[in-house]
Amino acid sequence: MFDTQALAIPQDLVHELGDEPLFDARTVTRVRAAFADITSVDGGGERLVGHFYAALFADRPDYRLLFPPNMEAQTGKLLTVLRFVVDSLTDPDPMLDFLAQLGRDHRKYGLDRRHYDAAHAALLTAVSSSLVTLLWSPTVEAAWRRVADVVTGTMSDAADAEELPAVWHATGVGHERRLDDVAIVRLEADGPVPFAAGQYVSVQVPQRPRLWRYLSVAIPPNPYGQLEFHVRRVSGGWVSPAIVGETAVGDRWSIGAPLGGLHVDRSSDRDVLMIGSGTGIAPLRAQVMEMAMRGTNPRVHLFVGGTYPRDCYDLETLWQLSLSNPWLTVVPVSEEADDPWWHTAPPVELPPGMHRPLTGPIGKVVASFGSWADRTIQISGSPSMIKTTIYALRGAGTPPEIIQHDPLI
Ligand SMILES: Cc1cc2nc3c(=O)[nH]c(=O)nc-3n(C[C@H](O)[C@H](O)[C@H](O)COP(=O)(O)OP(=O)(O)OC[C@H]3O[C@@H](n4cnc5c(N)ncnc54)[C@H](O)[C@@H]3O)c2cc1C
Question: With contact defined as beta carbons under 8 Å apart, do 55 and 126 qualify?
């Protein structure tokens, strides 16, 4: 979900949206039929993305330098975005918000209109050469041209309209290894970074140039440019092992434009349910820290999950917050009741008075209390945790429109 308040939608699109649908029924049908045709074969989606990059680099070999050496992760991300676009044609607002954010974020690569024109042409070439049984007829081409117009137009218009810098620079001031696979990194930016509590940014670290990764900021914004990230090492990953294992004080990081819209809607009188797993607690932690600076707040139930009890690495901070803020209840949840013998982190000392730890998959545990239909709900964690938690909540009767989460990319 995204904060539509914080996002500028290009004015020409707003106009079109006001009058008639952005994509007419024929366009929607043709685009979806072509996408279904392409992805009907094993690996068809990956082939489509492969054709996109082949067409882009054939036309503009110099653009290859904008991308990382290994394109595997890039392929997955672009395919996820394409699926999201195709799924959103009949309800395009969240997609437009997302594309506008992506356009603002992509300024860090130094993109301009020429790059978007090249991507527009490459998308049409890729679709036309990836069809399996359907023909690339003029009507199918027109439908995909409309999609390419909206995607590249929304991104480049949003990028052009943005006045904030494309990138901020920050210096590492602390690196704390909280668990064997989780580090807390603290930085000071050269100036304040205008993010909102709950947002994420893309970062580039000196150990892995040109490999940008999204990280949620774990503290609220402040005038001193202080930033804190909680990073889990993904086994076999390119960037997270370097951040967890090699970050040093004095490292210079690049920080991209703030993204995402996890937020507490203060205009609603609903209480809040937050569900975070692993380092997914970061954007929830930032929000409750910011709420702690206010006089009145809705009630917040924050479920904090991990595989083992010791994986709830930041319970102490959250518990301290809940002690002085009666509106906040923190509930630890772990999939396994006991730590394994090999876990090297010190056991979590649960402070007296804290909610007893619960055991089970976090989504199932939360859903066992009911549908939480009178709340607004935020879920943060890995894509699989978010999906399974939504599934469990939906099973308990939770209306989907009250659930927020960051994009699953
Ligand atoms: C909105 C958003 C916010 C994020 N915030 C944070 C954060 O605050 N802290 C944090 O640690 N991470 C966060 N991430 C994840 C982060 O951006 C990287 O994806 C992660 O650190 C892996 O990067 P990598 O370069 O090490 O792995 P890559 O080289 O990108 O991937 C290597 C392999 O691991 C797989 N993989 C990638 N991520 C995961 C995962 N989480 N679990 C299992 N397999 C995975 C990939 O599919 C690939 O096969 C966030 C992601 C998003 C989309």
Answer: yes
Q: Which atom of ligand 1 is nearest to the CA of 211?
A: 25
Q: Which atom of ligand 1 is nearest to the CA of 408?
A: 53
Q: Are residues 146 and 172 in the same domain?
A: no
Name the domain count of the chain.
3
Q: What is the pLDDT of residue 296?
A: 93
Ligand 1 centre distance from Cα of residue 383 (Å): 9
Closest residue (by CA) to atom 4 of ligand 1? 215
Per residue in 180-209, pLDDT (tens digit) is 999 999 999 999 999 999 999 999 999 998
Task: Name the maximum alpha-carbon separation found in the chain.
Answer: 70
How far is residue 316's CA from residue 351's CA, in Å, rounded to a whole number? 8
End of a domain among 161, 179, 198? 161
Distance CA 32, CA 330 (A): 43
Q: Is 236 exposed, middle or buried (0-12, 13-18, 19+ CB in 10 A)?
A: exposed
Residues 28 and 136 in one domain: yes
| Assigned token pair, 238 | 């390119």
Per-residue pLDDT tens digits for 110-139 = 999 999 999 999 999 999 999 999 999 999
Q: Is 282 in the pocket of ligand 1 (CB under 6 A)?
A: yes
pLDDT of 1: 29
Give yes or no: residues 350 and 292 share one domain. yes
Same domain, 109 and 239: no
Residue 18: predicted pLDDT: 54
Scanning 191-267, the segments in alpha helix (DSSP H) are 240-246
- Domain that includes residue 217, residue range: 167-256
Q: Which residues of the chain have pLDDT under 70?
A: 1-19
CATH of residue 78's domain is 1.10.490.10
167-179/213-216 β-pairing: unpaired
Give residue 143 CA to ligand 1 midpoint distance, Å: 34
The answer to the question of residue 265 being in a domain is: no
Same domain, 79 and 193: no
* Domain annotation covers residue 261: no
User: Do 112 and 242 fall within a single domain?
Assistant: no
